[in-house]
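User: Here's a protein and a ligand (pantoate). What would the complex look like?
Assistant: Let me lay out the input and then the predicted complex.
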Amino acid sequence: MKIFSQKMQISAEVDELKAKQLSVGLVPTMGALHEGHLALVKKALNENDRVVVSIFVNPTQFDNKDDLKKYPRTLDDDVALLKTVSKDKILVYAPAVEDIYEGNTVSQSFDFDGLEFEMEGRFRNGHFDGVGTIVKRFFEIVKPHRAYFGEKDFQQLTIIKKLVEKHNIPLKIIGCPIHRETSGLAMSSRNIRLKPEYKKAAPFIYKTLKAAKEKFGTKSAIKVSRWVENEFAKHELLKLEYFIIADTKTLKTVTRKSNKKAYRAFIAVYADDIRLIDNIALN
Ligand code: PAF
């Protein structure tokens, strides 16, 4: 498996592949790869001749320095895991901060038509400017035909589609369903940091989302939200940051349900100092 650390080299390699009429998919990650990432890589391999997996813990999308410091970095394990999927069709691009930011580790400012101010945007200052900056850079460096993102970060996926549309970037964004552990807990690189009691408690998040979906059939969004807030208020270990039922397109909190619109419930929860997010389609 070829591993690149410099943008010039990965760019040149992809140019060569494209000159041979091979299609290229991109799976951007921050490493600490798990089955969820592998599902994205497998889908990308099904739809492209070659797949670039970028592994980069992007400093500009972290508003919490401690979270950035503690974010797992497991490049050797990541490469070993990718080799179980394909040895010759995957290219890894694992740059250093310098290769990407060239001594100026700051975000560009973006206008995502308000999508960036909802949910994660309210609780993580500058997060989507950081995501937009790095993802746009990767698109410019790799110039893939398709790029793959998980629906666990549904707001991120929506914003990246907006980024591509507004900046006329010639590629297709493909969203992939959330991968869950057998307990129902959404797979995340952060899960490996959960202490045993929190790991045991965390499936409560998805259990509550499923119950909320059930209730949304007959109850108002406000009533469902109050019910979820109550369930977490009673919980001894998990702390709710937000639960929001939003319009799938605008990501705005729903006030009045319409049967013409699609809704999703979004949740962020603290398990100790680890922030977990999840979401579920409601209709
Ligand atoms: O979803 C992630 O892991 C990151 O936000 C991404 C898209 C790789 C950008 O750093």
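Summary: The beta strands are 2-4, 24-29, 50-55, 90-93, 146-150, 172-176, 238-247, 263-271, 274-281.
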